[in-house]
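Translate sequence into structure tokens.
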Amino acid sequence: MTLKLIATWIFGGVLISAAAWIFGHADSNAGVSQAGYVMAVFMAFVLILIGGLAWINVASATAKH
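Result follows.
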């Protein structure tokens, strides 16, 4: 494995961890507007998608080696 693949793998893990943290702390009450809550959940969903794509790229590149 090259350093670039390892960095991409860790980057995907950080993105998915950040998204899980956002999902875990998302709360629709306590003074948060509905639009802000939806935007936070959507942002976390996008982070999971990007992190998953990073892991898929690492898996496909590793399979070619």
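Note: Residues 3-64 form one domain.
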